[in-house]
Design goal:
InterPro entries: Formyl_transf_N (IPR002376), Formyl_transf_N_sf (IPR036477), Met-tRNA-FMT_N (IPR041711)
Protein name: methionyl-tRNA formyltransferase
EC number: 2.1.2.9
Number of domains: 2
Shape: elongated
Strand content: 15-25%
CATH superfamily of the largest domain: Formyl transferase, N-terminal domain
GO molecular function: methionyl-tRNA formyltransferase activity
Helix content: 25-40%
Number of strands: 18
Largest sheet: 7 strands, mixed
Pfam families: Formyl_trans_N
CATH architecture of the largest domain: 3-Layer(aba) Sandwich
Number of helices: 12
Length: 360
């Protein structure tokens, strides 16, 4: 079946989106392209920074503005459905983060395409890259699928890339980059081959179904009773700053401070490394630390590191904060610990105790 000239509504937001958008835009400019129109539909810019005064455009919007593509803001279902008046005949959604209503898709001759960073039905869901890394998968890949009228990641599989090996030192960013590139190439291949024109076309998949659920702050919690040094380093490499918990005095009110009211506070650390690499004798110099206890190296100023005893070794960190305050270097954190209600350097090691506290 020969395709009509394409009028594409391209839905997307983040860095992963940008790879596919750039590839489709370049293909549009090639002699063999049948793309007549390419509009970028993205969400309104978000406010951020101190006082939420900074307005930051999403990467998809940035690319579109830089290359003079038409940008349309749409976030609510009604706004998306109203886009049908623009007479698109194909939708492409790449990391848009919102379900495209069937009331809109059903009005497009060729429906919709989605570029999902996993080998479906494996790792269906909103966080496939993170879960592939956290679960130590040997490989992953990208699937170009049709958009299902009612469910995420249940469309017809039109193309799957070869298996992409996951390297031992991969981060979320490095794996996202590789998948972004091959996924963009796969999307252009589907457009060039016009695989979207046959409503019955699909290719079989040999991968077992699994679900990559949405990540929350709970995934950043470190379970000191269970997790090994390698587990913690992987968690940091994939998710960034890590969360621990510590008993402390409440400093919310003068009355709390006077009565020494006890509470539990979240301790967050960043720039986490295996301490034994920089300090080969750490197992001797910090031998007195118990599981979950932290101390500090002997350097002065910003060179000082925080050292935490974990199940089978030690981790170091150069950025720390107690909830309600900004990140600080370990030297400043140590000096201000008493003002923040910290009366010792022992983290809570019992996950059950943490769970019980947050249920209150």
């Amino acid at each position: 079946m020969v395709s009509d000239p394409l009028r594409i509504a391209f839905f997307g937001t983040d860095v992963y989106t940008k790879y596919s958008l750039e590839a489709v835009h370049k293909y549009m400019q090639s002699p063999d392209s049948n793309i007549e129109r390419l509009d970028v539909i993205t969400r309104p810019p978000k406010r951020g920074g101190r006082g939420r005064v900074l307005v930051k455009e999403a990467p998809a919007g940035e690319y579109a503005f830089e290359h003079d593509l038409n940008v349309i803001r749409a976030e609510k279902d009604k706004e998306i459905v109203n886009l049908a008046k623009n007479q698109y005949n194909l939708a492409i959604a790449v990391s848009y983060g919102k379900f495209i209503p069937n009331e809109f898709l059903s009005q497009l001759k060729y429906g919709g395409l989605n570029v999902h960073p996993s080998l479906l039905p494996s790792l269906a869901g909103p966080a496939p890259i993170h879960h592939a890394l956290l679960n130590r998968h040997a490989y992953t890949g990208v699937t170009v699928q049709s958009m299902h009228p009612h469910l995420f990641d249940r469309g017809r599989i039109l193309l799957q890339t070869p298996e992409i090996p996951i390297e031992p030192d991969d981060t979320t960013r490095s794996l996202l980059h590789r998948l972004g590139v091959v996924g963009a190439d796969g999307l252009v291949q589907v457009l060039r081959s016009q695989l979207y024109t046959d409503p019955e076309y699909s290719v079989p998949s040999s991968y077992a179904p699994s679900y990559a659920g949405k990540l929350t702050s709970r995934h950043k919690r470190v379970n000191l009773e269970v997790q090994t040094l390698d587990d913690i380093l992987l968690q940091h490499r994939v998710l960034g700053p890590l969360h621990f918990f510590q008993h402390a005095y409440s400093v919310k009110t003068k009355r709390d401070m006077k009565n020494k009211v006890m509470t539990v506070k979240r301790l967050i650390i960043d720039d986490v490394k295996d301490a034994s690499i920089e300090y080969p004798y750490i197992h001797k110099t910090m031998a007195s630390l118990k599981l979950g206890e932290y101390g500090y190296t002997e350097e002065y100023g910003e060179d000082k590191k925080c050292i935490i005893r974990v199940k089978d070794g030690f981790i170091s960190a150069t950025n720390m904060l107690i909830e309600g305050y900004a990140f600080q270097c370990p030297e400043r954190f140590r000096k201000g610990a008493n003002k923040r209600g910290l009366y010792n350097t022992q983290l809570i090691t019992s996950q059950q105790e943490v769970e019980n506290y947050w249920k209150k």
